[in-house]
Protein 1
Amino acid sequence: MKRFPGSAQAAVGGVSLTIAEGEFFALLGPSGCGKTTLLRMLAGFETPDEGRILIDGADMTGVPPYDRPVNMMFQSYALFPHMSVAENVGFGLKQEKLPRSEIAARVAAMLDLVKLTRHAGRRPAQLSGGERQRVALARALVKEPKLLLLDEPLAALDRKLREETRFELVRIQQRVGITFLVVTHDQEEALSMAQRVAVMNEGLIAQLGSPREVYEHPQSRFVAEFIGGVNLFAGCVVGHDGRMLTVSCAEAEAMFAVEYAERLATGAEVTLALRPEKLEVSPQPRPELPNRLSGMVRAVAFRGEASSCEVELPGGKMLRITFPNAARAVSGLKAGDAVWLGFAAGASVVLPS
Amino acid sequence: MTKKLSPFLLVMLALGYLFLYGPIVSVVVYSFNASRLVTVWAGFSTHWYGELLHNEQIKDAALVSLSIALMSATGALILGTLAGYALARFARFRGRALFAVLTTSPLVLPEVITGLSLLLLFVALERLIGWPAGRGMLTITIAHITLGLSYVAIIVASRLESFDIALEEAALDLGARPFKVFAVITLPLIAPALAAGWLLAFTLSLDDLVIASFTTGPAATTLPMVIFSSVRMGVSPQINALATLILLLVAVVVIAASRLMKPKT
Amino acid sequence: MSPRAASAWRRWAVLALPYAWLALFFLVPFAIVFKISLAEQAIGIPPYTPLLALDQSGWHIQATASNYAFLLSDSLYAKAYLNALKFTAIATAICLLIGYPMAYAIARAPDAWRTRLLLLVILPFWTSFLIRVYAWIGLLKGNGFINNALLELGLIHEPLALINNAFSVQIGLVYSYLPYMILPLYASLEKLDWTLLEAASDLGARPLRAFLSVTLPLSLPGIAAGALLVFIPMVGEFVIPDLLGGPGTLMIGKVLWDEFFTNHDWPVAASVAVALLALLIWPMGKIRHLLVKGAA
């Protein structure tokens, strides 16, 4: 259990977090939200002005980085240029004053895990970006810390490598069973790797939950907009029958039927958040959908497996829709086409305004 | 992006180097002049080199200068590295502004001021506590260390500014204590800057006339002092020979040092 | 020990030695110089009156501003200061005019050439200062190289007075301090983002305009650093006016030397030093800021 009940610096407000052992956790947020400061506090490079950091029950708040059972994989990798790969990986073990044979064995095992055995004698300057990243990971993992911190691990990699590395990180984490905490501004990175995600904004945690929860059920406008694309409708409640909310939306010139269990007063202002893939688009009207709109396609972007298009409503509002290219009905969509849009009652999320 | 240099720039470069090296070349050329009248060419001769090698006064002075330079460069390196590290890494401490001023001032002050003030200090100290007893090699060395440390500090501070601090943090994170981090990570990686600093302090000491003249005593005559008194009386062919030898030595050292400091690929 | 206390202890362990050294061997001497500037010349060792004197009426402080009055009264000193400033200003400007194009050329040169070109600038810098000044004597004197060459070529019929005057001092100053101007200029230009010039060109600026609007302003810190690095030590320069100068080129550095070594008047020498220091306090403040921040 890693718990950090409250910590306060200008960069990080009151944050209270508990991370389970062996969990793959992500701290997600835009630059300046305080996630890096929080990371550094966990590593020991910054001290919280208030609050404590407990690791496995032990209070680590004032403990310097070299005495903590925490290790970090730096964003720039920070590999020691004057040492070989093996010496880099073994550096942490050397500080523990372990016998040489043990160090050699553990280094070899770790290099094998990250598939760098062939490069053991090379210098960092001779490696590619992806290889350097693996050295940085191996170096941090070999000490078997209670918590491994990863600072923007995929930021320096190109797109293809990023995907491969994502899977590999998850695989490695499951294999070694160490608690991983990834700090990133890339929501795709966080959602695809982590078991739980904390979304941070301006020094505070906006929402904490599994990737699916955070994506499908954002609890605030900020989270809805930050994670993935979203269409937002400003509306006003006109009726509630216990399970369904009827919302009048001026900018869409429509009434929406939305599933919502809690009671809301008539006249309350709400925001409906609708993910682009939940909005269905077709060249024909779709009377079977409870919420229907019509508009004109303004732009279509082909993205390989899916496409996204911008549709303008008669009132001027722009909506974003994504659809798989395999869907035959809409594969020929182009700018200027008139289309019908619709979404199911349970497809959108009601947010406080 | 590296397009060819414009003709104007090339001409300026050429003229500039001509200006810088012309006088030096003339000294070298005339060191081989058979005639005593230095500027009237009378034929090639290495006669003056022979005389130079038998010149006891110059040889003694060279020895004195070399010893002082070795000691003061090393002292300057140690103190300067500490000072440079403090300037670069310690963001705030009591008296930081004063420390920064103290460190960077010897660098720029006119040497007559530094020399005079140090001599007056030595005189006052001697009267107060009996040390240093008289002036000589020790006082010159102290003076040169003070001057050299300022140069080393700037070089080290500047090198540390561009040093990736993440490397030090990574080492701390992996369990190394701060002193260990400095010894095993920082020091090896800034070694070229340290070498440059030592070399600079060494050369400064070897070359210094003014400060040495103020802080010296009866028994310590440095090479620049000998050269100066000789040169005041006029141009001397032995001095030309000495100058050429010094030039050669410096050229060899500088070229060797630059080869050594080429980044290893 | 708490981590804060431990790191504070570590700091002082690093700082203690250099701080103490500099305080003793740099700061204290200035206090002493100031104190002696308030004393009077006396026979004996040391050749000045002590600050505290004991006589029938007890201890009292002996201090006098007579040395400063003397400096102000004798026009020799004022002339020497002004000469120093004049020569230095001119030499600094010339160093800039010669040094800037050179530094710029080196910064723009292809990588392979750059190291060699820099080395060629640094080499004279590492060679004996004294010898480089001395070299000019052989070139400039009445029967020196230049005069002989000009006479041989029939361009002149009598040797020109090239030495022991303002001309030779000026040349000596520029010559000796040129590397000190080139290096900081180069350091500043080397860091320049050359794509800015490309952007300017793309937007329609001709090379001269691009230089004036982009390169020059951005290299201003380097210019300031070079100018100060040259100006401050040059003002108190002694060797060059001594070897290459004459009666009309008295500079304050030489005055200080003569007061001390020839006249054995330590108090006056001290007051000359204090006055010179007062002059340099402001530029020294500027250079400190530039040096530590990394213009060099």
Note: Chain C has one domain: 72-293.
Protein 2
Amino acid sequence: MGSPSTNSFATPGSEVGAALEFSDVWIGFDEGPILRGLSFAAQPRETLILLGETGTGKTLALKLAAGLLRPDRGTVRAMGQDISTKAERELLQFRRQVGFVFQEGALFDSLTVGENVAYRLREDRVSDDKIEPRVEEVLRFVELEHTAGLLPSELSGGMRRRVSIARALITRPPIVLYDSPTAGLDPITSQTIITLILRLRDIYGVTALLATHRLQDGFALANFHFDSATRSVRRGVAKDKFHLAVTRFLVLRDGRIYFEGGPEEMLGSKDPYLQRFLI
Amino acid sequence: MSDAPLRFTRSQPNAPESPSVAGFLTDAAKENVLKVQDFAKLSYHSIGNLFTRPRYGEDTVHQMDDIGVGSLPIVLLSGFFIGAVMVLQTGSQFQRFGQVSLTGDIVSLALVRELGPSITGLLVAGRCSSGIASELGSMLVTEQVDAMRAMGTDPSRKLVSPRVLAALIVVPLLTAISVFMGLVGGMFASVLSLRLSATTFWQRAIAILEFSDLMQGFTKSVVFAFILSTVGCYQGLNVRGGTQGVGRATTQAVVVSSVLIIVADTFLTKLALFLAEKL
């Protein structure tokens, strides 16, 4: 099992506070507002699990965090920048520092796996001799180095998600946004994906926002960590170098945060709505 | 160049429902005005992007191959037979007045001024406008367009401008080929049906043409190329409703671009005649 070994990922927000911050964010469409004053902050190296029923705006929150949508009201700050007022041209530059893993992978179906992964580097006019080893490195990280020449249609659903993760981390982004990365996958494949997310978090200290409706994904991230020494996943609460727990749960309901806390608080809650997630 | 994401027509939040007929008509009018505005913006950016970096030369060549080489067989065949049919239809009338030699004149003028550009425009619209709409629409519903934006690429530069530029280059060439094939078809029909010599046909066909006729045909082909490519891109990038929406967008692209080509043809013909009188 290989891992990117050259430069480490950038650590966002070390001088600017939160890596990602939503302040009273509203957004809606014809059917009315979906997010109604969403506020939360993700500290550098922290993983936030965004839980909620279908249609509560989890994907919208991720797209707002990536600057793919503009809020109708409120501000979204990422790495110290207010991205809710930036022009599209500036946002294109900003998005190069954020990795986005889409629910179905969103791989370019006319490009091979290798070309998909190399896409961003080719856009940046990086030379081929630098692209090839980097693509090989990230594909090895997701254990798909043998698929570089295949088309996305030749891969399974789980493999497509892993390629999507490889594509998102090719430029070593300090923030990675995961949109239901295990949705529709079998338990074993889901575990592979979660292990990858664990490794990204614990080896590189990536700040992550993970939208899911599967509570077990959140608990897996909260209760396990990747041990670099033994290169294996171990039980135990993941903590950063300051011994702070690095995984928090945010439960979305009616367009705003209904619950915010660690895994113990989530498990110990007697709230009937939260109980529905725990059953 | 572009300062707005390509999903121009995001609905306004909290749009109130209008119960009255007047309200319904007002909403429909507003929606259509918004569509025209979005189409104008897309058209503006598609051209404006060509003057600033980054440019996608490889994609443009790929699209030229797809639109140009891909459309060649239908343009060659249709051009040949349209020329032949014109001779058969007009020749019998000229025979009544003993003016068969004028056949070359009329076929040449009709093909260069009118039939070559419009038939080529309609054929390429049927083949490529629909293809562009379905390709971009599929990319949109599978989140590939969002993935592109998430990786810092402006879809209007990467997807729209290369297609528009490719169409602007190859459609006039296809028109020229279509006109030539029409004259060849007309010559064959003249020789076989009207017993007119090939030399006479070509001499008359070439001698009757003036620079203004060539410019009229060329201008029309450029305008039609712009219409069919931008309409295809617009319909594709504004798909609503998943794969069903892609089907609708594909049909709409052909219908709208064909109607716009015919309408534009009328105005361009009037303008060309006006300019020919003045100059």
Note: The radius of gyration of chain A is 18 Å.
